[in-house]
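Worked Example 4.2. Consider the chain below.
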Amino acid sequence: MTGPQHPEEGAERASCTDAPPSAAQCGPLSHALSRVARLHRIAAGRFLKEAGIYPGQEFVMMHLWDAGPVRQSELIKVLDLDPSTVTKMLQRLEQTGHVRRSPDPADRRAVLVEATAASCTLHAQVTGAWSRLEELTLAGLDAPERAELTRLLGKVEANLCKGTPGCPDTPPPARGGTSSGDQDSASSARSTSAAEL
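Applying the procedure from the previous section yields the following structure tokens:
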């Protein structure tokens, strides 16, 4: 029977954090990407909090600023999120005066969403937050390295897109190949709460 572990032994063992968990050892790059994505979300949240919005809401606003008034159903499709998540985001943005929702004159059952004139200040703040996030993320990389990283991440995205329904270059499933229930499950699996974006 062994005695209690000495603090020095515990400290020595706890310092071995460079190696990925045993289950992730066959995917060290995937493990690194997940860690980077998590830290990137945290940093984005910190910068966006200064603008008074939650992570994920900036994507709603970016689309509205660029596209103008759109139907809420189109916004849900573009963002690839659960309708309830988008509705909650829009409610918060409406309460802060950044978006306006109104019935679509062409179809009274549909809802039009648009950025308000008051959101112009937010536009400048989001632009600044993303600029700071970019510099923090790429600090220490020179221009060729930044270009190469962007190129490589584009290839990684294309690889992942091949198996993800809804990606721009992904063909729709063959008729009879996937039930609507399966599509709903896939959509739910891809959906992320506003706080996780």
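Strands lie at 70-71, 99-104, 107-115. Residues 28-51 form the longest helix (24 residues). Compare this with Example 4.1 before moving on.
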